[in-house]
């Protein structure tokens, strides 16, 4: 196998880098054009790095829980740009807003296009514990982990195959979450390797499928839901995003695509309907500023929509975990 990799713009000194990046660097410097020769020429077979790499190569045990995490909820869709990340962030904050005694973390599994650093207004390299586990960065009470904390914002990230999987494994296994009631996972678009890998390696409590009215026509949401069913991850339900336009001046709502499309789709797919998130300027503007509406405008109708969604998700979690 040939690795194609463009990797530039690492922040900070190499000595301070999380081991995830040190592994990549070693590979960049020494990787031969054959997957059987992953070992670095400069380090002997018994070096700690070599041993670590060999262990990694053996793969992860199937369905091992993430240490300290009670429930894992993935936010996914069949299609890109439908509002998964915005929904994931506000869902995590909504769960806390509804019950401040709960601890909720956010994992950005979009390795190629991480959004969580910007949406949660977080920047910088995670510190490491003595056992080399990455400590999440926290804002608004939510500990977060993202590939975006490990590479520069502008750095092109073109990783293929094992590189992506290796990064994902680190994000799943080498993060010191502490004790979490819920870990919300912001998935990359589509139904590819990352989605499958997470579903197979971690006991996922359930999937929240985000759809827009356009998706309803394209039935991408259906494909997403079907993928999770195939890998035995319960589908918690469908969220329809951006169907109802809410005027920022008078809060008047216009159901541009009709009001019952999403419900019909959910019925048709045999999944629960979790709620409608309005298309609202505030949601976009506040997201761009790293101030999600649930914390920046907690009493607004759009924040209420996310809190209602969080309550509906929680009900479904209780249903699927009894
Ligand atoms: N309900 C909404 N109202 C207004 N704007 C929204 C809403 N939901 C999402 N957006 C905006 O739509 C854009 C895409 O949202 P987002 O990044 O959350 O989508 P995504 O599905 O995660 O995309 P990707 O597939 O690239 O990861 C962003 O600019 C976001 O601010
Ligand atoms: Mg996203
Ligand atoms: Zn108006």
From TrEMBL:
Compartments in which it is found: Mitochondrion
Cofactors demanded by this protein: [4Fe-4S] cluster
Any single GO CC term annotated in Swiss-Prot or TrEMBL for this entry: mitochondrial matrix
Major localization listed first in the record, in broad terms: mitochondrion
Any GO MF annotation of the entry: metal ion binding
Keyword tags: 4Fe-4S, ATP-binding, Iron, Iron-sulfur, Metal-binding, Mitochondrion, Nucleotide-binding, Transit peptide
Keyword Magnesium tagged: no
Residue ranges of the TM segments: none
Record's compositionally biased regions (Polar residues): 35-49
Region (Disordered): 35-61
GO biological process, one term: mitochondrial respiratory chain complex I assembly
Function: Iron-sulfur cluster transfer protein involved in the assembly of the mitochondrial membrane respiratory chain NADH dehydrogenase (Complex I). May deliver one or more Fe-S clusters to complex I subunits.
Homology family: Belongs to the Mrp/NBP35 ATP-binding proteins family.
Name of the protein: Iron-sulfur cluster transfer protein NUBPL
UniProt organism field: Muraenolepis orangiensis
Lineage, opening ranks: Eukaryota, Metazoa, Chordata, Craniata, Vertebrata
């Amino acid at each position: 196998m040939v690795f194609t990799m463009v990797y530039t713009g690492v922040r900070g000194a190499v000595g301070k880098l999380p081991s995830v990046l040190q592994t990549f660097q070693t590979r960049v410097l020494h990787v031969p054009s054959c997957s059987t020769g992953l070992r670095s020429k400069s380090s002997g077979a018994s070096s700690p790095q070599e041993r670590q790499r060999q262990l990694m190569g053996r793969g992860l045990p199937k369905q091992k829980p993430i240490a300290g995490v009670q429930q894992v909820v993935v936010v996914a869709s069949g299609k890109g740009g439908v509002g998964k990340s915005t929904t994931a962030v506000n869902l995590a904050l909504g769960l806390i807003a509804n019950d401040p005694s709960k601890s909720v973390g956010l994992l950005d599994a979009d390795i190629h296009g991480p959004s969580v650093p910007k949406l949660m207004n977080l920047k910088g390299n995670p510190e490491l514990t003595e056992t080399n586990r990455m400590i999440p960065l926290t804002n608004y009470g939510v500990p977060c982990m993202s590939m975006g904390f490990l590479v520069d914002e502008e750095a092109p990230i073109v990783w293929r195959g094992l590189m992506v999987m290796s990064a994902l494994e680190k994000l799943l296994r080498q993060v010191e979450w502490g004790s979490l009631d819920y870990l919300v996972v912001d998935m990359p678009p589509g139904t590819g390797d990352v989605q499958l890998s997470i579903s197979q390696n971690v006991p996922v409590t359930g999937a929240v499928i985000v759809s827009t009215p356009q998706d309803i026509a394209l039935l991408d949401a259906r494909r997403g839901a079907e993928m999770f069913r195939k890998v035995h991850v319960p589908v918690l339900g469908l969220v329809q995003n951006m169907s109802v336009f809410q005027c920022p001046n008078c809060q008047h709502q216009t159901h541009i695509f009709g009001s019952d499309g999403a419900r019909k789709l959910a019925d048709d797919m045999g999944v629960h309907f979790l709620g409608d998130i309005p298309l609202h300027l505030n949601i976009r503007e506040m997201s761009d500023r790293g101030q999600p509406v649930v914390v920046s405008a907690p009493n607004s109708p759009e924040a209420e929509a996310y809190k209602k969604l969080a309550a509906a998700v929680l009900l479904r979690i209780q249903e699927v975990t009894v």
